[in-house]
Amino acid sequence: MLKLGAAQKQELLEFARRLVQVPSPPGGEGGVAELVRAQMQALGFHEVRVDEWGNVVGTIRGRGRSSVLFDAHMDTVPADPSGWRHPPYAAVVEDGRLYGRGASDMKGALAAAVYGVGLLAQAGDDFGTVHVCASVAEEAVEGPALERVLERLQPESVVIMESTGLDIAVGQRGRAELTIETLGRSAHTSNPALGINAVEKMAAVIRALADLELPTDPFLGPAIAVVTDIVSEPFPGLSVVPHRCVITVDRRLVVGEEPEAVLGQVRAVLDRLAASDPEFRARVAIAEDRLTTFTGREIVAPNFAPAWRIDSEHPLVTRARAALRDAGQEPRLVTYRFCTNGSGSMGRMGIPTIGYGPGREEVAHTADEYVDLEELYRACEGYAALATRLSRF
């Protein structure tokens, strides 16, 4: 079982610091990708590949029969330095923590897995096939980039390395971004009766959405619908009744909810409003995400990330718990409150998936984001333990 010495801990920390020091917004992960590729090769990964989307995948192969893939995304959300005590890309180490954008979400985990699996490869062959994937564009659209890798490699299990505080995540709610549009007719505001006010029609939609009966999951919790923005046309509306209004709805999903069912629920609301108001016209759609990766490939995908959940008695879960206990850890079973690339691996592709990583999800995307150094080191040991146990069978 891997136990990091003082020198190894320092090497891991320096690698994590180098990753944090390179900004990597979605579509701009090239610098981090090169650092990961070089580190994997230096550690002796048997194969290192950068695919056409920019995903970096390092692979080691032993004598075990199974395969497991560990995934961490390289991209981070932007950081406004004015709100930080430490500059977001300085990678300051203070009071037992590494501070910086991506330290928790999720360059710390990426460094820990690359280093832990690399050391495993140097120690022998008591494992099967282990892949470490540094994926692109997760912050922009969850799933598609990792799915590209999974389609090629076909692993038997996946470990999403988003923060869990070293617990094991066995599910997450999903997320859909819906756009609802109401259509009216412009008129001068001195004579509004000649027009149809699209904002007023949207107000009726928002009130009706508040009364929606949404499903709930006994483990993941309730589905949620939150209006996040509203835009009207023309804007600014200088003495003009608005002819169009659009809102965005952040819809958190539970297991089993499919796009057509989610859309159908909103369409039923719009149909009821239309039945009582002959001037009411509206439509709903799932928003579309578009992003060009740092390699020049365009990602176009519906903004619909399914929820997922794995049974607590599934062999992947029981083996993962046993592996981490062997590494001196006592993980609880938890769920993510946010979306992850697990929406792709298990939500869409059905590959057994768990989550495990250092850090706290509540510090992601915040000023002075950090990861505790002790968790970083223990995660490295945990990834080596998981890689060994999950790929032997």
UniProtKB/TrEMBL annotation:
Supply the alphabetized keyword list: Hydrolase, Metal-binding, Zinc
Entry annotated with the keyword Zinc: yes
Q: Which cofactors, by name?
A: Zn(2+)
Keyword Metal-binding (UniProt):
yes
PROSITE patterns (alphabetical): ARGE_DAPE_CPG2_1 (PS00758)
Instruction: From the UniProt annotation, give the residues forming the signal peptide.
Output: none
Q: Where is the Peptidase M20 dimerisation domain?
A: 170-276
Matching Gene3D superfamilies: 3.30.70.360, Zn peptidases
Q: List the Pfam families hit by this protein, alphabetically.
A: M20_dimer, Peptidase_M20
What InterPro entries does the annotation carry? ArgE/DapE_CS (IPR001261), Bact_exopeptidase_dim_dom (IPR036264), Peptidase_M20 (IPR002933), Peptidase_M20_dimer (IPR011650), Peptidase_M20A (IPR050072)
One GO MF term: hydrolase activity
Protein name per Swiss-Prot or TrEMBL: Peptidase
Q: What is the lineage of its organism?
A: Bacteria, Bacillati, Bacillota, Clostridia, Eubacteriales
